[in-house]
């Protein structure tokens, strides 16, 4: 198998995550391109499945907001972009992550970040080598074994924890009803070591600086617990091997 | 692909099926709690999700309301990761708009719209993985979703695609067969009466062969009807067990 110099083969890995009542589907897709290895995120919450308001272009605002947030939480250390390089200054992999929002049940950002992390964990990058011709034109060749792949390390990929302020206290993993009662929320992006990569306040209300520090501490604590349980779940699923049952919506 | 035999001498297709054989169909109703009706269907590797909202008040301009019947609004969307090459626009492009209109035409023929005047029924279909027969999978999923929503219909709407290769009619085409360039036909059928809700073909086919292909597609659609009927009865049985106790 061999691909051309630009726009080579793509692989897509799809996982579906139901989190309470919020259903998201995350997928990562690779393609070869010239230039710097980069990571591009596209959110498709414009699926009218979630709510009729997202019909046509209705969901674009929310989609852009989520895509920008995801682009921000991934900073220098999150993904090893050097492993996406094929030949320096010439060819590299571009990683596209597509998220499809199927049902809105509250706590959107958390569910999406979990889906993205799981999809990246599931991604397999095929091993390629560059063959050079006599004339100097390069061709990229895939190895013959379809299972000869590199896995991405998702150790440092952060997860978003949303803390909603309701009255004088704050809650994590809010349902739709709880979100409707909360005036302001804090989005904290936490890695598995408890390092905060990004923080954002959303909502119409205002927050006291004291409560922001409290919420951040809770976010770090919850984030570490979330990472460890997600990691163990992903490893458990991986250990089932290729014979594992892909259940999807039918289970 | 040059040299790929769509139908071998022994009568087997690329994926090992016979000419008139359908792919494995698995379906589930009531997938989402928030929507009025929802369903998920897997036809071989093609996966489609349908969600129904309604009947509810007309959204947007009141002038679109029809005084004697309901308005059926369909949107077809296929995920960017549904095909082998990453698609840029999930919906809004010409093909998706056309498929949305075709779905609307199909369901206006089946839903008893006279029972809900001045209201709107929304049918949203999402293709998660496309491996040929996406229109058929969407129609089948939407039928189940409309039934899950409790909207009265004249009959099931069952759809299937059919093609014509080497003098034989093939049913339920996969992506490889669709991409080969052979004539293909999409048929949506109301099985009890045998009425055709939608018939679409955009290739050159001699009229002598048309009847053979049409009959094969109708037979396959009746096969799909048997499966969908079983799924609906199973769902009702499960729901009545939950309510009964």
TrEMBL record, chain B:
Belongs to the RNase PH family. The keyword Magnesium does not apply. This is Exosome complex component RRP41. GO terms for biological process: defense response to virus; DNA deamination; histone mRNA catabolic process; maturation of 5.8S rRNA; nuclear mRNA surveillance; poly(A)-dependent snoRNA 3'-end processing; positive regulation of cell growth; rRNA catabolic process. GO terms for molecular function: mRNA 3'-UTR AU-rich region binding. Component of the RNA exosome core complex (Exo-9), composed of EXOSC1, EXOSC2, EXOSC3, EXOSC4, EXOSC5, EXOSC6, EXOSC7, EXOSC8 and EXOSC9; within the complex interacts with EXOSC2, EXOSC7 and EXOSC9. The catalytically inactive RNA exosome core complex (Exo-9) associates with the catalytic subunit EXOSC10/RRP6. Exo-9 may associate with DIS3 to form the nucleolar exosome complex, or DIS3L to form the cytoplasmic exosome complex. Signal peptide: none annotated. Its main location: cytoplasm. One of its GO terms (cellular component) is euchromatin. Residues 21-152, 155-219 form the Exoribonuclease phosphorolytic domain. Keywords: Acetylation, Cytoplasm, Exosome, Nucleus, Phosphoprotein, RNA-binding, rRNA processing. The keyword rRNA processing applies. InterPro entries: ExoRNase_PH_dom1, ExoRNase_PH_dom2, ExoRNase_PH_dom2_sf, PNPase/RNase_PH_dom_sf, Ribosomal_Su5_D2-typ_SF, RNase_PH. It holds the Pfam family RNase_PH. It comes from the Eukaryota. It is found in: Cytoplasm; Nucleus, Nucleolus; Nucleus, Nucleoplasm.
């Amino acid at each position: 198998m061999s691909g051309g110099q630009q726009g080579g083969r793509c692989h897509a890995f799809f996982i579906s995550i139901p989190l309470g009542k919020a259903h998201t589907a995350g997928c990562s897709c690779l393609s070869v391109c010239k230039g710097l290895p980069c990571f591009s995120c596209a959110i498709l919450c414009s699926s009218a499945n979630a709510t009729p308001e997202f019909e046509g272009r209705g969901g674009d605002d929310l989609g852009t907001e989520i895509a920008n947030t995801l682009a921000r939480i991934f900073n220098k250390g999150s993904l090893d972009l050097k492993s996406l390089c094929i030949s320096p200054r010439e060819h590299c992999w571009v990683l596209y992550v597509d998220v499809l929002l199927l049902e809105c049940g509250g706590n959107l950002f958390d569910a999406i970040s979990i889906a993205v992390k799981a999809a990246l964990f599931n991604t397999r990058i095929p091993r390629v080598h560059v063959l050079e011709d006599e004339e100097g034109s390069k061709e990229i060749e895939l190895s013959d074994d379809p299972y000869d792949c590199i896995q991405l390390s998702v150790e440092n990929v952060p997860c978003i924890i949303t803390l909603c302020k309701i009255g004088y206290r704050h809650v994590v993993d809010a349902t739709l009803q709880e979100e409707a009662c909360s005036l302001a929320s804090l989005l904290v992006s936490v890695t598995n070591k408890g390092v905060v990569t990004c923080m954002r306040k959303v909502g119409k209300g205002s927050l006291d600086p004291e409560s922001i520090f409290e919420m951040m501490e809770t976010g770090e604590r919850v984030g570490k617990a979330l990472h460890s349980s997600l990691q163990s779940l992903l490893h458990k699923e991986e250990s089932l091997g290729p014979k594992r049952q892909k259940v999807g919506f039918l289970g | 692909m040059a040299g790929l035999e769509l139908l071998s001498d022994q009568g087997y297709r690329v994926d090992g099926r016979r000419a008139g054989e359908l792919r494995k169909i698995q379906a589930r109703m009531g997938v989402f709690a928030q929507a009025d009706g929802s369903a998920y269907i897997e036809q071989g590797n093609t996966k489609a999700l349908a969600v129904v909202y309604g009947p509810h008040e007309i959204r947007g301009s009141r002038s679109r309301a029809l005084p004697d019947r309901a308005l059926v609004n369909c949107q077809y969307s296929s995920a960017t990761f549904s095909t082998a090459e990453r698609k840029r626009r999930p919906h809004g492009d010409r093909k998706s708009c056309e498929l949305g209109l075709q779905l609307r035409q199909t369901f206006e023929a089946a839903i008893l719209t006279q029972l809900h005047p001045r209201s709107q029924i929304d049918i949203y279909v999402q293709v998660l993985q496309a491996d040929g027969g996406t229109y058929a999978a969407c129609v089948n999923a939407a039928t189940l979703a409309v039934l899950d929503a409790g909207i009265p219909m004249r009959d099931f709407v069952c759809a299937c695609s059919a093609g014509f290769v080497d003098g034989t009619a093939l049913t339920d085409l996969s992506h490889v067969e669709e991409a080969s360039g052979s004539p293909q036909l999409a048929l949506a059928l109301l099985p009890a009466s045998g009425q055709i809700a939608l018939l679409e073909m955009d290739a050159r086919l001699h009229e002598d062969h048309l009847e053979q292909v049409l009959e094969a597609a109708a037979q396959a659609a009746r096969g799909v009807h048997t499966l969908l009927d079983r799924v609906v009865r199973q769902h009702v049985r499960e729901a009545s067990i939950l309510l009964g106790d």
